[in-house]
Write a structure and sequence with these properties.
With about 325 residues, the chain is an alpha/beta fold. It has 11 helices and 13 strands. It has 2 domains: about 190 residues, Isopropylmalate Dehydrogenase; about 140 residues, Isopropylmalate Dehydrogenase (3-Layer(aba) Sandwich), CATH 3.40.718.10. The structure holds nicotinamide-adenine-dinucleotide and 4-hydroxy-L-threonine-5-monophosphate. It catalyses: 4-(phosphooxy)-L-threonine + NAD(+) = 3-amino-2-oxopropyl phosphate + CO2 + NADH.
Length: about 325
């Protein structure tokens, strides 16, 4: 049998459990060509599924990799029980350290199964970064946590949809710390990882990568900053010498128009919101977050825990569905 895709449930008090249950109950995973296993909490998932189907039933199973099956409208959802939190006592949007520990356990278990070749890919539900900190993990997000777990120094956060894909040089850090975190090698390695991933996973023989400037008007010849001439242009030159189709530094305000028009395959962005604002403007509903440069395949929803919606059953599950489909496409054929 083909190895499964593992879905991690995310924050038990966020929308993760309900978007997983919703996607299952609406049948969105029926065309996925691999088994799906949810790493999470059966009681929480059952409570979430009841938002859509009051008759759904949680059953114990002692056979197979799934310790629980959730049955709703004839669909069987395999669950690996990694926590048994008191569902009735948890309040939407208020994770405690036990929830933080559980979120971490889902992620590390799934990552280890992928590293061992027992799963083909992992897809992550949204976590709360404060809660994982309360549970003793100082990684600012999945991206950094998985890089550490896989013993990789440099990975790239890419978010994308059909119209736009953005790769970030820096991720979760204060805006005031961005300039100091940028250097030629970081930018060059981001370009190289993006280039390799597009060739391998997205059937792009020579990806066209647009590299953004940091400052307005690409620094206006040094008047508004010199990162462009000092750091970014040398990184682009080095990439081009390696045969990579990288261009820039482009003015960030104008470039997205051309990228969305189809002139580029991906945009290399200097910091989080430079890339994620245009991306989420276009692709909030169906965007996918992918970590490039890991030895495993990891995709994710492009949104957070959405505490304002948790427990209402109103959260959109399209990003999750796209993340699962993308993981299935990226998964190694031999596994
Ligand atoms: N993949 C991840 O684990 C991930 C991604 C982004 C943010 N986060 C975390 O989530 C928490 C909240 O972050 P935030 O408030 O910046 O972003 P958010 O995405 O949780 O919420 C922003 C807005 O989008 C809405 N929204 C989010 N998901 C939705 C969905 N599926 N359907 C409909 N509307 C949806 C919310 O209701 C809210 O109005 C933070 O702790 C953050 O670190 C986690
Ligand atoms: N920057 C991501 C976003 O806004 O969607 C998000 O915080 C997720 O990060 P991780 O995949 O590292 O958890």
């Amino acid at each position: 049998m083909r190895q499964p895709l593992i879905l991690t449930m995310g924050d038990p008090t966020g929308v993760g459990p309900e978007i997983i249950a919703r996607a299952w109950l609406e049948g969105h995973f029926e065309t996925v060509n691999r088994p799906l296993l949810t790493a999470g909490d059966p009681g929480i998932l059952h409570r979430a599924a009841c938002l859509y189907d009051a008759d759904c039933v949680l059953t114990e199973s002692r056979e197979g990799p799934a310790s629980h099956m959730l049955v709703g409208k004839g669909r069987r959802m395999a669950i690996r029980a990694l926590s048994r939190l008191p569902a009735g006592q948890l309040v939407a949007g208020r994770p405690d350290a036990a929830c933080g520990r559980a979120m971490l356990d889902y992620i590390t278990w799934a990552c280890d199964r992928c590293l061992a070749g027992e799963a083909a890919a992992m897809i992550t539900g949204p976590i709360n970064k404060q809660a994982i900190l309360a549970a003793g993990c100082d990684a600012p997000g999945h991206t950094e946590l998985l890089a550490r777990r896989c013993k990789v120094d440099k990975v790239v956060m890419m978010l994308g949809g059909s119209r736009l894909k953005v790769c970030l040089v820096t991720t979760h850090l204060a805006i005031r710390d961005v300039p100091a975190a940028l250097n030629r090698d970081e930018i060059l390695s981001t370009i190289r990882i993006a280039d390799a991933a597009f060739r391998r996973f997205f059937a792009c023989s020579r990806p066209r990568l647009a590299v953004l400037a940091l400052n307005p008007h690409a620094g206006e010849g040094g008047r508004f900053g010199d990162e462009e001439s000092r750091i970014i242009a040398p990184a682009i030159d080095a990439a081009r010498r390696l045969g990579i189709s990288a261009s820039g530094p482009h003015s960030a305000d104008a470039l997205f128009h051309f990228a969305v028009r189809g002139d580029y395959d991906a945009v290399i962005c200097m910091y989080h919101d430079q890339g994620l604002i245009p991306l989420k403007l276009l692709h909030f509903e169906d965007g996918v977050n992918t970590t490039l440069g890991l030895p495993i395949i990891r995709t994710s929803v492009d949104h957070g825990t959405a505490y304002d919606l948790a427990g209402t059953g109103k959260a959109d599950c399209r990003s999750l569905v796209e993340a699962v489909k993308m993981a299935a496409r990226m998964a190694p054929a031999g596994l």
